[in-house]
Amino acid sequence: MIRLIISVLTLAILPIGILAQQYDLLIRNGHVIDPKNSIDKVMDVAVKDGKIARVAPKINASAELEVDVSGLYVTPGIIDMHTHNFYGNLGTYLANGFSALPPDGFTFKAGVTTVVDAGSSGWRNFEQFKTQTIDKSKTRVLALLNIVGTGMKGGAWEQDLTDMDGRLTAATAKRFPGVIVGFKVAHYFGPEWAPVDRAVEAGEITGLPVMIDFGGHDPPLSLETLVMEKLRPGDIFTHTFAHVARRIPIVNDQGKVEPYVWKAQERGIIFDVGHGGGSFRFDQAVPAMEQGFRPDVISTDLHTGSMNAGMKDQANVMSKFLNMGMDLEQVIEASTWNPAKVIDRLDLGHLTEGAVADIAVFSVRSGKFGYIDIVKKRFDGNQKLNCELTVREGDIVYDLNGIASPAWNE
Questions:
Q1: Distance (Å, rounded) from C-alpha 80 to C-alpha 66?
Q2: What's this model's pTM, rounded to 2 decimal places?
Q3: DSSP codes joined into one string, 23-78
Q4: Within its chain, how far is the Cα of 71 from the centroid?
Q5: Can you tell me the mean pLDDT for 13-33?
Q6: pLDDT tens string 32-63
Q7: Helix axis angle, 194-206 to 166-175, nearest 10°
């Protein structure tokens, strides 16, 4: 009885505002763009216990923290579907090597809450990658498993057909459902289709997609055969706007998108940007965009060779496509709901009530901006996306200008 009386007295002296707080976080007056739910207007977004609690105009409730984002855009947390995060100290390229990057320093500042590591690890070293990076990152890290058992160690390791096993790769993916979300083929220069065929075998066993980093074959293997015969609907062709040695580009010497590229997209092949340090050129992207060919997914191919070059970060890559003719809703869709569907993580990439509260808030700046491709050619634009605030599972993890913080003297 005494404890009950004390509890009642304690409640009686609490400020009324604390008792009335319905939400943990309330983001007010932002222009919400949520392609999955066809929302494109000014709304409030409420968060409770790490989940989206409500999205509606003028939510009449209080919260522990309210943030006014008038004039800014509120989107689902961005999904970067092509990164390399198996960082380490072995010096073996992107598999436990110096060229890969710890994600948290490169994601939140660009509005990214989920990354998909694109084949840095294989079935032999995935568990090390999981322990070393996935389990220790605030960013949600998913993975495409390389068809090479040792992953992207570079050099001779990635040419070893004897280490490409579809069944062992599939078996590893089955042990980590929802974390391993597909498979990757990259950097094989031989004349055989075996790496692609074995990755597709793993995809058939598991029902997961395959991403192909194509090129380097001498003579070049047929891109038409790849996208029209070898890959299945839902499989991914990355580095869409590259023009590299010993790979047929999607825009031909006459400046036209190859006819079979249109047909491949129609049959369900996913065209991913995968900008990187060597895989995006304006002389491919601009003609394609002018002809109406747009990527399904916008991604960075983040690693040390791209982070300070023309790529920079996800928001910068998104800005390039905003300036090349995609509207803002299309850019957001290609960076949220589209990649979520491709990797079959339908719990991500939207602001549905009950979904995880991964949220990005962007400004769209007007002015004169220069964007650079991998051969240091510049494209001039008049718009630029800047991430102002990032929320990961209900927690504010990035706040560029302190919009979620009180003034120091309040």
A1: 28
A2: 0.95
A3: EEEEEEEEEEEEGGGTEEEEEEEEEETTEEEEEESS---EEEEEEE-TTSEEEEPE
A4: 25
A5: 76
A6: 999 999 999 999 999 999 999 999 999 999 99
A7: 40
